[in-house]
Amino acid sequence: MSENSPLAGLLAGKKGLIVGVANQNSIAWACAQALHGAGMELAFTYQGELMRDRVMKTVSSLGDVPVFDLDARSDEQIDALVAALRERWGSLDFLLHSIAYAPKAAMANAFIETQREDFSAAHEISAYSLVALSRAFAPMMPEGGSIVTMTYYGSQKAVPGYNVMGVAKAALEASVRYLAVDLGARGIRINAVSAGAINTLAARGVAHFRDLLRITGERAPLKRAVEPSEVGNATLFLASELAGGITGEVMYVDAGFNITAG
What is the per-residue pLDDT across 107-157, written as a single tens digit (0 to 9) for each? Predict the structure, then answer.
């Protein structure tokens, strides 16, 4: 986003937390770039030392931004992150939830073979973490705010290879609706962006992903796959007051793929 863009100062003075950047190809990073370009001050998380250097390298282009270790399965780590950001900023305007995980076996095997522990892990990390983070950070949004999470069309239709992650994303989208009811009285909006097939680190764990990418380009009304920057711009919109009347929704950014018949 150039300095001459009409959106350049749209989020000036706002502060946001980005949970889920993995590398420069991740959807969360595309969102972060759009938000930063509109003037939002950002903080980031990473999970464990293995990811630290990768995330630090990715966000270095934004200057000296705060980066925190966070395992979203740990209420203690979530509480520690809230305390750190409260001390640094006092309040928060925006939260991006862009984390999802399912054990490899649950993605490689047929869905009917999903084991109990793998099902639980996928739902805890991919869906419940949104509930936990929303509950923890809502008090830091006393003047209202916006929360956005990332989902996928596999929540609505059975996508080959998406398996338990599709079920977890369905739970995530239902959580958005229930959270919207609970948070609305506080002036906090929460929405999901359903991004089309994008070649990210997480997507490579889906069997037949390259076929899915090709089919998306063939079937989508725009005759192409969606760009990460387009998902970023949709997130920017939902983070801003331009979307002031929108909450509890799933916004599809997939070149129209979701409207077509199989």
Answer: 999 999 999 999 999 999 999 999 999 999 999 999 999 999 999 999 999
**Burial of 213: CB neighbours in 10 Å, binned 0-12, 13-18, 19+:** middle
Q: Residues 39-68: pLDDT tens digits?
A: 999 999 999 888 999 999 999 999 999 999
Catalytic entry in 46, 153, 162, 252: 162
Instruction: Respond yes or no: is residue 101 known to be catalytic.
Output: no
Q: What is the pTM of this model?
A: 0.94
* Residue in the structure block whose two tokens are 């007051």: 241
Phi, psi of 151 (to 5 degrees): -130, -170
Contact 42, 36 (CB under 8 A): yes
Asked about 162 being catalytic, the answer comes back as yes
Instruction: Determine if residue 5 is left, alpha or beta; phi over 0 gives left, psi from -120 to 50 gives alpha, anything else beta.
Output: beta
Domains, the chain, ordered by start:
15-259 (3.40.50.720)
What phi-psi label fits residue 155: left (phi over 0), alpha (psi between -120 and 50 degrees) or beta? alpha
Q: Catalytic: which of 152, 153, 178, 252?
A: 152
